[in-house]
């Protein structure tokens, strides 16, 4: 049983909410990261889940790394745990379902790295974001490549090298976040986005995610994913429906 991470399936049919609850600031240590990854791995094979929301609470998403844990590490111990920690922080990117991070208060360090794996980031208009690990003599373990792909190498280097915080206006202008709302509306805005995929073509959405995740090899991956979709019921339903009645008329079955 997870100690700090839970899944709520009762908010809306087809949507799973991963909640991080490690008060007071939802700091991310290896245990929390592995618990998120374990939950994500289970949701990945659950065909009843069509979209996933990652959330802390109304006060804070995550204020970053658990430095008390990191301060005691030797280089050998850090090397032994790095691969597991890095993989866990990328858990959202491996989910086949569309994912959205609903961010309140702070998304710093490892917390922001987790959120960078989501397909969409929605924040309150009072949120602070950043990767301040450099101020502790460290670097982000899982966020540098994702950040660089998201906002470009120059802007990513600025944030990583300085470790500075970013306010909502700058985060939106950089493309670091996708939507800025009132603090009380963060969770509902994330649900509103997630609901769009409850009846969507699950296999095609998963294929698109794998192509995006393939990065520089995405063009090659797209050929294989595109061809394999012709074995799905959703492709047959969608294509015939589009021909007969135009877009948005299909009733997909997720197979």
TrEMBL record:
<protein>
    <submittedName>
        <fullName>Probable enoyl-CoA hydratase echA17</fullName>
        <ecNumber>4.2.1.17</ecNumber>
    </submittedName>
</protein>
<keyword id="KW-0456">Lyase</keyword>
<dbReference type="GO" id="GO:0004300">
    <property type="term" value="F:enoyl-CoA hydratase activity"/>
</dbReference>
<keyword id="KW-0443">Lipid metabolism</keyword>
<dbReference type="InterPro" id="IPR029045">
    <property type="entry name" value="ClpP/crotonase-like_dom_sf"/>
</dbReference>
<dbReference type="GO" id="GO:0006635">
    <property type="term" value="P:fatty acid beta-oxidation"/>
</dbReference>
<comment type="similarity">
    <text>Belongs to the enoyl-CoA hydratase/isomerase family.</text>
</comment>
<dbReference type="Pfam" id="PF00378">
    <property type="entry name" value="ECH_1"/>
</dbReference>
<dbReference type="InterPro" id="IPR001753">
    <property type="entry name" value="Enoyl-CoA_hydra/iso"/>
</dbReference>
